[in-house]
Every structure is written in structure tokens, then in C-alpha cells.
Design a protein that fits this description.
Blueprint: H1 3-13, E1 19-23, H2 29-37, E2 42-45, H3 48-54, E3 63-66, H4 75-78, E4 84-88, H5 91-103, E5 108-115, H6 127-138, E6 145-153, H7 160-180, E7 185-188, H8 194-199, E8 204-207, H9 209-212
Parallel strand pairs: 1-2, 1-8, 2-3, 3-4, 4-5, 5-6, 6-7
The structure holds pyridoxal-5'-phosphate.
Pyridoxal-5'-phosphate binds near residues 23, 46, 190, 209 and 210.
Amino acid sequence: MSIKENYQAIKNQLPVEVQLVAVSKTHPVSAIQEVYDLGQKVFGENKVQELMEKAPLLPEDIQWHLIGHLQTNKVKYIAPFIDTIQSVDSEKLLAEINKEAGKNGRIIKVLLQVKIAAEDTKFGLEISEAKELFQQYLDGKYPNITITGLMGMATFTEEEQQVRKEFLILKRLFDELNQLKTLNTLSMGMSDDFPVAIECGANSVRVGSAIFGRRDYSK
Ligand SMILES: *Cc1c(COP(=O)(O)O)cnc(C)c1O
């Protein structure tokens, strides 16, 4: 199937209220432009350097989401233009984003990335840490940031029950924090598990290979 057919097939599977973040990492600018021309405005990249190379070559109204682990010393590069940083996994990073957002006269949207997978390979905050950071935010510690929601990745497994269980953990935390201050975004689900994520309450999904095809890391 072509990128266009893939994109349209994914769009057709998503309820209208679910945001699609098209994950374009490793894929060329031409492929991103093709999906943009079909009406997609929100794209996700996981590496700062790759994002910095691609963004200037693409339309200015693209909303870029950083979805991969972010080192504090790289925040300054993306702070002038990033729409949302989905991968906030430490207090230090949140403080740095707040600082750089301030320097740029911007309010940067962030999601707290919470560790929900049984695998220990994934980055993310423990639930207790996420609650703590959210409380600091409510207390006014990060004036140049808006926490718009939560992000999580489930275990990479065929066992749907396991994946469902993990997504529901994040949904429960989302509901709890949402009582304290309204959140917009629950980002969970990728190419292989986004239908389950939506059943569990996701309203934003991050889909890469199901749109752009398999990633080639050899280049
Ligand atoms: C690569 C990536 C995705 C997209 O994965 P696909 O399986 O290609 O859809 C989603 N979220 C994060 C954090 C990623 O790094």
C-alpha cells in the first residue's frame, strides 16, 4: 500500500475526537510532505538532531511533537518552535523546559511520560513521581509550561490483556489528575496497539510504521 492509502486507512479507523500524531522518525522530508499534503499537521520525531534537520525544510505550520527521550542540554535547540514535548520523564527536564520556554517568551505544552510497561527498558516516571511533578506544577513552579496530559507506552507483546491492563493504569492516573486540573491529552497507542489504546481511553495516538512503512535504521 502507498503512504496515501496507509494514511487514509488509519484516519478511517480513528474516531474524530482522537488526535493522530504521525511519527515520521527515520523517514525522509518528502514522505512527511506527502502526508502533510493530505491534511496532516501534527508530526512526531524522537531525536532532536533529526528534527532540527527536517523542520526547516517543511511547512511552518506543522506542529512538531518530541516523543523520544530528551536530554536537558538539547532542550534549548527545540524550545523556539516545538509544539509539545511528550516525553517528560524527570523533574530536571521539566525545570529545563520551563527555563528555555521562558527565554523564548513561550509557553510549551508537555506531557508527563509515565512508565506503565512491565519491561524495564522504557523511560518514564513512576506514578508517584508523576503525581509529585503535577503537584509542583499546580503550585506554580513551572509558569512557562502547560502540562496538557500524559503519555505512556505499553509492553511490546502480543498479549492484549497485558497491554490493556497497562493502558488502564494510565487512564486511571489521567482521571485522577484531571480532577485537580483539566487535562486534554492521553497519548497512548502506536501502530500495533492503537485500537486497544483507544478502547482504554486514549484521545491521541502516535502512529509511525502503519503510515510510513517499516523503518530502515541502516542509513
Ligand atoms: C517510534 C515511536 C512510535 C511509533 O511507533 P510505530 O510502531 O512505528 O507506530 C510511537 N511512540 C514513540 C514514543 C515512538 O518512539
